[in-house]
Amino acid sequence: MNLQNSQSVEQQRYVLESLAELNDQAYILSRYLHGITCEVCQLLNSNWTIITICEEGDWQILASHPLLHEAGPESSFHTELSAILLQHGLLQHIDDVEHHLDHQEQLGSYTYSLGVPLRTIYGRVIGTLYAFHQHPCQHSSEKISIVQSLAERTAMAIENYQLYQQKRLSDQRLEQEIATGLRELQAIQSKLATQERLAEIGEFTALIIHEIRNPLTTIEMGLNYAKKRLLNTSDQKRLALALNESQRLKQLLTEILLYTKPQVLKRSRLNLGDFLSELLIQLKDMPEATDRQIELTFTQPDIHISADRDKLKQVFINLVRNAFEAISPGEKIRCEISSLHAERVCIHIHNNGEPIPPEILPHLTTPFCSTKPSGTGLGLAIVKRIITAHDGELTIHSSAAGTTVSVQLSIVP
Questions:
Q1: Each residue of 338-348: pLDDT tens digit?
Q2: What is the share, in percent, of the chain residues with pLDDT greater than 90?
Q3: 220: phi > 0 → left, psi -120 to 50 → alpha, else beta; which?
Q4: Strands, DSSP E only, in 80-238?
Q5: What are the backbone dihedrals phi and psi of residue 30, each rounded to the nearest 5 degrees, phi first?
Q6: CA angle 83, 131, 141 (to 5 degrees)
Q7: Which of 122, 204, 203, 199 is nearest to 156 (CA)?
């Protein structure tokens, strides 16, 4: 069993134990309150005794003897009686309060009632204890005193149970917060470990690239010298091919270095519309843009972001170049800025070129995955690393209508 499954089983076991404990406490309280109603019935020789509680203005019976369905009226006239009792705060008799009831027929066969408020040690009334009789009767002061004592014990038991429930809820919230904090800490630790590992890989890669670049430069110098000396057409073709391959290898080394290098951002506040407008004007002069057009639209003119200008420029140069390469001369690519909500903005770059095969689409941001014969397969991987460093999101959708690359970034005031 892996660690995640083990933690899940442990959490489930804890939840079940907690629920069982809570159910036990509720069962104990229910038995205790039922015992109180039985004692009062015996003490006062009453026909029906109930304990009620008021929560947020809603009255409910917590305990009854005999059981509620065996006891008299089905209607909740005890709610009216309880409200009257709380208003007066003293013992009440039905003959004293029946004229206050809206529906006197609700009393049924009960002709006498003794009610005591359930008052906590802090003086807060949380409910009532009522004993109902079908025949008039008189209770001694000693018996009434005992009922008042039982009411105090009942109030204490209910309050303790409520405090217990509040503590359980508080403990559960605390445990959830701790668990969330631990998960966030683990995510941070994992991210730091990844960054450290990438930093080590970057240092190692930089050393290798340095060692490759030096002899590659020497080889390139030799090829250029040979190109000047060997004027035969066949020799010139071979040398041109070798020089092109050396240039491609140098570009690959540069992109590998960019990919493995830690993303250290120099953030500044940018007006996204102005930034892209200026950049797209410059990109119209790139070779891939020949006989092609680009259109920029935005629904909201003043959207600001916090970003590294140079790195973000690198992102959109790559994405726009890819879009130009995907369309034919005379066609157009569209760049649209739209705010998702108050906190996020999305930049869509759409081309109507050939759709990307669905089996390749999920792997486009994986290093060395490319749909172009001469591509290094690192361009989109580098783009994704830069966007991720900005706490953004890169998504790619492709269909018969074309391909849309979307970049989500956070908006700043």
A1: 887 778 999 99
A2: 25
A3: alpha
A4: 112-119, 125-133
A5: -60, -45
A6: 100
A7: 122
